[in-house]
Amino acid sequence: MKQVRHLQRAGSARFVDRYTTKADTLLQPWTGEDTALFGLVGLPLSKPSISHSGASLAPAAIRDALKSYSTYSGETDSEIARPIIDFGDFYMNPTDVIGNQQRLYEGMYDLYETRAAEHMIMLGGDHSISHATIKALSQQGRNVGVIQFDAHHDVRNVEDGGPTNGTPFRRLLEEDAIKGDHLVQIGIRDFTNAKAYADYVSSKGVHVYTMADVYRQSMEMILEAELTRLTPLVDEIYLSVDMDVLDQAFAPGCPAIGPGGMDSRTLLEGIRAAARHKCVRSIDFVEIDPTIDSRNMTSRIAAYGILQFLLAKEANNS
Length: 318
Description:
Blueprint: E1 27-29, E2 36-43, H1 58-65, E3 72-73, E4 78-79, E5 84-89, H2 97-114, E6 117-124, H3 129-138, E7 144-149, H4 168-174, E8 183-188, H5 195-203, E9 207-210, H6 211-217, H7 219-230, E10 236-242, H8 264-275, E11 280-286, H9 297-316
Parallel strand pairs: 1-5, 2-5, 2-6, 6-11, 7-8, 7-10, 8-9, 10-11
Antiparallel strand pairs: 3-4
Helix pairs in contact: 1-9, 2-3, 3-4, 7-8, 8-9
């Protein structure tokens, strides 16, 4: 048989620096038996979005964006070395939106029950996936606190459009999956929500910080106060990162872009500061549409956010 020189397997013929470990190599397929400090799963649902969205493609795009980074943190002179169990993606039926939401809840419930990973990273999908992930966690007998980075309250009424990406936290509150004063919303943007929904979260005791609050008080001060307050009240804290909390200049791949949002450095520092806290156990990244992104900018921020989360958690476990 004729040998063809220099030919390599598809996808493997790329430049490799022997001294650099790329972050995507941390991902290891789940064998069904192994356990690890970190786990990652894709929830590729975007059909419930009230605006056009290709967020179902985001889990693959974020995984791919990890190739853009090394595992070495020069600021801390430390290496992220622990593997991440990649559980894969949940199957989504192309036409059964309500059924898909139930599948995500059932799948996440089963995944939590495996206890295969101490810290979970969820890749959406639109923000409707957070209803499934947080409800499933609460159904494990956990009293869950949530820190939500978001431009929107996401407490729209379900009568006008059903369970969309604008309703996850209203559903969680009304189903008693979380308590109002256990929910913290950071980055709520002006001219982006209705007064009725601002009144609703206020009536439920949700702690809300607008973008004006973020710049007046600083992300660090807000998180320090809220983590201190939440810790004695809950069993664990879940971070939900809606990428549209970012200003449109930093997140062109969000379906609901707008001015006046957070810069990427502030968000990334917020993720890392929160993840340093031992009560913070899980994180999701939602609302990225790779089909409208520019040079994968928005997915790259999410991938960088994953690294910030990993770095903080590895420091806790060193």
